[in-house]
Amino acid sequence: MTSSQDACYISLLGLAEYFRTSTPPDIKKCIQCLQALFTFKPPLKVEARTHLQLGQILMAYTKNTDLAKNHLEQAWILSENINNFDDVKFDTASLLAQLYQQQDQSSLAKPVLRKAIELSQHNVYWHCKLLFQLAQTHATDKEYTLASELLAVGVESTDESNATYLKSLFLLSRAMIMMIERKTNDVLAILNQASPIIDHSIQNVHLKEYLKVFFYVLQVCHYLQLGQVKTVKTSLKMLQQSIQTIIAPNWPSDEQIFGQNNTEMFMWLPKEQLYVLVYLVTVSHSMMAGYMDKAQKYTEKALTQIEKLKSQENKPILAVFQIILLEHIIMCRLVMGNKSLAIKEIALAKDVCLSSSNKFLLKKHAPQLHCLLGLYAMSTSLFEHAEKQFYACIQETTERELKLFANLNLAIVYLRTKREQDLRNILEQIQQENSQCSNSQALMGSFYYVQGLNAFHKSSFHEAKRFLRETLKMANAEDLNRLTSCSLVLLSHVFLSIGNSKESMNMVTPAMQLASKIPDIHVQLWGSAILKDLHRMLKEPTQEIEAYNNHVHFSQNLIADQLKCTKFPEHALINWFQGDPPLPMLSQDLLVQPTATIVAPVAVASGSGVPMVVQQQQQQQQQGGTFVRLPGTLNQQVMFQ
Questions:
Q1: Can you tell me the distance from the alpha carbon of 430 to that of 438, in angstroms, rounded to the nearest whole number?
Q2: Side-chain half-sphere of 20: how many Cα atoms within 13 Å?
Q3: Dist. CA 274–CA 144, nearest whole Å
Q4: CB atoms within 10 A of CB 571
Q5: Residue 259 in 3-state DSSP?
Q6: What does the alpha-carbon distance between residue 222 and residue 398 come to, in Å, rounded to a whole number?
Q7: 3-state SS of 118-151?
Q8: What does the alpha-carbon distance between residue 512 and residue 296 come to, in Å, rounded to a whole number?
Q9: What gap in Å lies between CA 77 and CA 68, rounded to an integer?
Q10: What family classification does the UniProt entry report for this protein (predicted)?
Q11: Please, which pLDDT band fits residue 277 given cuts at 50, 70 and 90?
Q12: What CA–CA distance (Å, rounded) separates 371 from 574?
């Protein structure tokens, strides 16, 4: 450029920056200054950089995404073949792909990122950043094999450049993808490969601690995916210790830790979000282990922290955490017999999903919402609505485990409504599906429980005992307390039915102790009915009266709560079976009312990767049950920021 052109260019840039940083910013004049640069027909580098700057300004300060996209596309076309222009070229590619993603045009984002990755092999920072971004794009589109292949390329690339920290991130990210694909053996292999690198090859203590949190989150989720609640305890404790180290007052800020050199400017999540995530996996563990009080306590703390972070900057990942936590707390309410709070929180979860950008969360969590509504409908004896909700879940989900649990719910519906042919058909289908998901202790134990329940209803008591003993063996091995308590109370009822009062008492006593510890009002309701009959058989009137009074107390609490919840406008959500969920209906005349007979659910721990819950229904002394899987694998939601 001539000196006069140079002076005009610098002046316009200065003015643009002045208007951008004014209070309040004058974005219109800022954009006009940048656009004025094109009248001087600047060199390609200047033109490309200006298009990039305009794209950045438009994306940050306006809603004119089409104009932003036009400028970024121009910047990419101009800069793609210019040498020694890495920052503009690759920043443009990354931002343009991000914009395509926001507009649900990932098919346009992928070729841009692939070309940029090809051009950036000489630049470790940009090469890795673009690999992560493209892997995330494929993972979002559920193209997990392609995402995994890109992360493997990252491992090789960082190995060649001796970027050990980045290599660890690529390995852990790949393990996360393998978890989503349920490739159990591959997950273990990659975690075993990453562990010694983190322990012995990362010299920076701060980076090491962040990697340890990432590693332990994956390890905990992996064990929970297998239903190994007991095995996971050591890893969970290590995770909780690591997060306490990171959030300590003397710990440096993320900006200080990740700003030292360009190969260390990557992190999975900032420490404030990691703090919430650790609460979340702790809640998940508490749910599976059957500690409802703990799950509620940690959920409330996590939700408080989320609101605090939202007030500072409302990042999309916070809504992801919020919806998963709500799904957990809803299950706590159902287990503890508080349906009135459960339906209000289902409605809140629905609102969170609807308020997300492009209803992204609704697309991800609608099947889980249907499953939760199905459980709620069963707890209010609305079996027709429950059936439709579980069917909607099955139709909408691509998740094998969630589909299996919805089918288990349907099996209980058919059992309760005496639809024997439908029950036989679905049990055969479940048998096939369970054989494909047999790596989960809790999942297999839950299936045995359903078979035992079915055998009990058919008065096949020997067969019921066989199935329930298998359930107990698996539940006891991994401290699945809710599965244990529900199996014990059903086994007690089996022994009561064949007149073996001694064995019945031996089963119901620990069942009631566990139920009180959880606490699970539904097992207590069922157990108190059994105890009443046992004490009558044993001619123990004082204990019989006590058991009867307990049973009346539990029953009255559940009936009162049921009458309360069915008067809420949110109760109308049970009529939502497809499409976007409706706003709550306000007219009480339009609400579906429950039948007069109370059906109380009894929760049993179950799961494959995240908490899964079996709910057992008891009507007088006739048992049924429902299943629900608490949704959301954390690692599907975010890879890198």
A1: 12
A2: 19
A3: 24
A4: 27
A5: coil
A6: 20
A7: HHCCCCHHHHHHHHHHHHHHHHHCCCHHHHHHHH
A8: 21
A9: 14
A10: Belongs to the SCC4/mau-2 family.
A11: very high
A12: 11
Q: Please count the CA atoms within 13 angstroms of the CA of 620 that sit on its side-chain side.
A: 4
pTM: 0.86
Q: Where residue 317 falls among pLDDT bands split at 50, 70, 90?
A: very high
Give which of 563, 617, 639 is closest to 595, Cα–Cα.
563
Q: 449 is written with which tokens?
A: 């429980």
Per-residue pLDDT at 88 exceeds 70? yes
375-394: b (≥16 Cβ within 10 Å) or e: bbbbbbbbbebbbbbbbbbb
Cα(451)–Cα(439) distance, integer angstroms: 18
Using CA atoms, how far apart are residues 573 and 370, in angstroms rounded to an integer?
A: 9
Token pair 């940050």 is found at 60
Q: φ, ψ for residue 606 (rounded to 5)?
A: -160, 155
pLDDT tens, position by position, 533-574: 999 999 999 999 999 999 999 999 999 999 999 899 999 999
pLDDT for position 583: 64
What is the torsion angle, in degrees rounded to the nearest 10, for the CA atoms of residue 100, residue 106, residue 112 and residue 114?
150
The closest of 208, 218, 237 to 180, measured between CA atoms, is 218
Closest CA to 391 of 372, 376, 406, 411: 406
H or E stretch covering 613: strand 611-619
- Interatomic CA distance for residues 113 and 268, integer angstroms: 20
